Amino acid sequence: MTDTSIPPFHLAFPVNDLAAARAFYGGLLGCPEGRSSDAWIDFDLYGHQIVAHLAPAETAIAATGAVDGKNVPVRHFGVVLSMAQWQALAERLKAAQVKFVIEPYIRFKGEPGEQATMFFCDPSGNALEFKAFKDLKQLFAK
Fold first, then answer.
1. Gap between the Cα atoms of 49 and 43, Å rounded
2. How far is residue 33 from each of residues 23, 27, 45, 128, 138, measured CA to CA in Å?
3. How does pLDDT run across 83-125, given as a tens digit for each residue?
4. Which phi and psi (to 5°) does residue 95 adopt?
5. Is 58 strand, coil or helix?
6. What class does CATH assign to 10-57?
7. Can you give the pLDDT at residue 71?
8. Under 8 Å between Cβ of 60 and 14
9. CATH 3.10.180.10: which residues of the chain?
10. Regarding beta strands 76-77 and 70-73, do their DSSP bridges make them parallel or antiparallel, or are they unpaired?
11. What keywords are annotated for this sequence in UniProt (predicted)?
C-alpha cells in the first residue's frame, strides 16, 4: 500500500479497544499492521502511518458542520483515493453492512472540486472520510 511519491503523514488517534481497532483497520479496511504494543498499533493507511492508541477517555463523538447540505463530522481523517479505489472501498463497506454517517455520493456535482465522498466511524467513534476526485487537479480548486 505504500506510495513513496508523496511524503507520508502520521496521525495518532484514541480508541476504546485495540482488538476492535485491529479488526476494523487491519481487517475491514485492509491496512497492513506495523509495530504494536499493549497500548497502541501502527497501521499503513495507503502509505500513511496511523496509530491507534488505547485511550478510552479521549474518544467522543465529534461535532458536525454543514457541508453541501450534510452534517459532516468536524473531527475526521481519511485518504483521497483514485475513483476505482473509492468505488471498491464503498462496495466493500456496503457488503460489510457498515453504518455510514454520510452514504457514498458525489459532492459539488458540476462545480470545482467535484468529488465522491463517504463518511463512517470506526468502533471507537472516530469519523473517517474517504474521497476521490473526478479530476485530482481540482483537489484545492476554489
1. 6
2. 11, 10, 9, 18, 32
3. 999 999 999 999 999 999 999 999 999 888 899 999 999 999 9
4. -65, -35
5. helix
6. alpha beta
7. 86
8. no
9. 10-57, 64-138
10. unpaired
11. Dioxygenase, Oxidoreductase
